[in-house]
Design a protein that fits this description.
Strand order of the largest sheet of chain B: 5-6-7-3-8-9
Number of helices of chain B: 9
Helix content of chain A: 55-70%
CATH superfamily of the largest domain in chain B: P-loop containing nucleotide triphosphate hydrolases
Oligomer: heterodimer
Largest interface: A-B, 17 and 21 residues
Structural class of chain B: alpha/beta
CATH topology of the largest domain in chain B: Rossmann fold
CATH architecture of the largest domain in chain A: Orthogonal Bundle
Radius of gyration of chain B: 21 Å
Order of helices and strands of chain A: HHHEEHH
Strand content of chain B: 25-35%
CATH architecture of the largest domain in chain B: 3-Layer(aba) Sandwich
Number of strands of chain A: 2
CATH superfamily of the largest domain in chain A: Winged helix-like DNA-binding domain superfamily/Winged helix DNA-binding domain
Shape of chain B: elongated
Number of domains of chain A: 2
Chain lengths: 130, 299
Amino acid sequence: MIEFHLDGRSGVAPYMQLIHQVRHALRLGLLHEGDQLPKVKDVAAGLAINPNTVLKAYRELEYERLVAARPGVGTFVTGTLDGGSLAAHGPLRRELQRWLAKARRAGLDDESIEALFASTFRSASEENIA
Amino acid sequence: MTAVIETEGLGKRYRARWALAGCTLSVPAGHVVGLVGPNGAGKTTLINLATGMLAPNAGTIEVLGGRPAAGPAQLARVGYLAQDAPLYAGLPVADHLRLGAHLNPGWDAELARRRVERLGLDPGQKAGTLSGGQHAQLALTLAVAKRPDLLILDEPVASLDPLARREFLQDLMEAVAEQEMSVVLSSHLISDLERACDYVIVLAGSRVRVAGPVDELLATHHRLSGPRRDPASLPGGLQVISASHTDVQTTLLVRTSGPVFDPAWTLSEVGLEDLVLAYMKQAARPAPRNSHRRLEVQK
């Protein structure tokens, strides 16, 4: 079981701090699939924060498919963040978004973009095999 | 869902002075509501109206869909902890619980017993000899064991030291997590309530300055800074809460319903404390100082 803490001066919203701490623990291998997160009541009592704040953080983690709630039992880890590959998604996505914007400015429509991506993807994979 | 507190043009006058005026609110259930404002803003007056200890001179107020203190059923649904958490100094802890059991139809004796045990209170000890923190915790125990749908606390942590303050709020948040209970608590310091509240009402100069869910307030308020300009020249849809200028720069705290596109402005987020202070400062600006001082009647 992990224990949450809050930094009142960080300027980061409390629910975001909870999310960061779960993701961090997953990355560091402190939390594994099947582990239970602290109960909402215990987090609220421990940190003197609103239970809705904890619920909001847990819902967000659920949405990211990192945890799942079992009604009446608790919230359990269902996903992993090992290898750091998930962490790279954000920057890669942003790069891709920039590229997509560039492609649109150049006049490519959806189909041309898909076609260009697919053909580039294929040729890059072939190069890797060769 | 019924609003926990619904008011329309609510006002309370003490002789010629309005302690609360034009108060229109609709606070949804399921929140921990922070009622914030400087001393004398009208917080206690609003609380006394909500508990039925005062009758309004103007407007209407409904609490949990009923008239405050309308009858035994209404009284049983609302818990109230007055400023300084009054207890009977000569009465032992156990007798306070017995009193609670006799006076409240929904009394949860098991909950009260468990809490007193966990707090490490000696049932035989007289309330007058408890420490400040224990005193507040016992009073909270009585209020919570009543199992109210709405718990109203007037400045519950003002007189507590930082450790007792934290412990009180921890205890309160645990109770909120355990019971389906809405809470309204007042303080003149938003920092006391920042972690605990998810809904804020700012009262200043006898009026409600802003009210809403914390998330929503934070999402719709921004700090804008840019080259000096007249706030009147701003695009529509922006409500300026506070403005400050140097010879070259203007800094604004604004409320907006949509994104701000003007590239001349640098946009940054605002914390809850700055937001609340901006509204208090706005309230203090136009009116002469003496019109909103000491309006709250202290008993």
